[in-house]
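To: structure subgroup
Subject: Chain for Friday's discussion

All,

I'm putting the inputs and outputs inline so they're searchable in the archive.
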Amino acid sequence: MSKAFDLLKWGATLGKDEQNFLGAKWVPAFLKRVPERSKRKWALRVLDLSPHYFLFPDDPKYKGLSKDEYLEAIAGDARVSREKIRDSFLLEKLEGAGTLIDWGCGPGFLSKALSPHVGKIYAVDISEGALACAKIINAAENIEYVPGDDEGLASIPDSSADAVISFHVFQHLSDEIAKVVFSDIYSKLKPGGRMIAHVQAANETWRSEEEWRSDDSLKGKVRLKYGLHCFGRSEEEYEAMIRGAGFDEPVFEMMKDLMPAGEDDLSGQMIVTALKN
């Protein structure tokens, strides 16, 4: 019964485009109508409807908390995790950046963590529901949340950003869309601007896009539909995409070498930095 309910709520929040978590039109419309005093509570509840944002309800450290207490606690953990990324290596890589684009910002925790350190942030996501939640939970005067459609991207001038960051995005994108995103990132960067992207190396448990799409089992179809998958790609495949977008000499670093010792779940995770000529 629980699995059936999960599928029902995930389906009710999906947008029409692939990987458009919380993209259903009712999500931003609902949050707009919620009274101001209750917006944060309901934004957190809406994020919890997606299988992508608040992922650890069975963690023992949340035992005994009410639903809303748990949501506040896990939102606090999300904030701390982004601040660790910021302080461990990202601020150094963003040194001197005045205008930043956070591509695939989701609920905006990383944008908010970086907001005191840059002049302007365009936080882009394909999901208008995730953006509606971000505007409530992670608002800042210098953050502009932008829909990742043609109209939204057109509002960001080409060759205007000093840096573009993208975290936990590319493993969910098809090859076709990933190539488009790398090219779009290149077009928004100033000459000499830098892209800093989080990617995941292929491993023995991650299947290729072709393998995912050829899986005719019900489980395989469900996982692909709801984004409960990661497309496995090699460093060489990512490098070919990045070079194909116009970047030269992308540099790959293992995330475990950039983060404090003892951080969990960093196996195979990489940070790739590339400059626009």
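Points worth raising on Friday:
The mean pLDDT is 90.
The chain has eleven helices and seven strands.

D.
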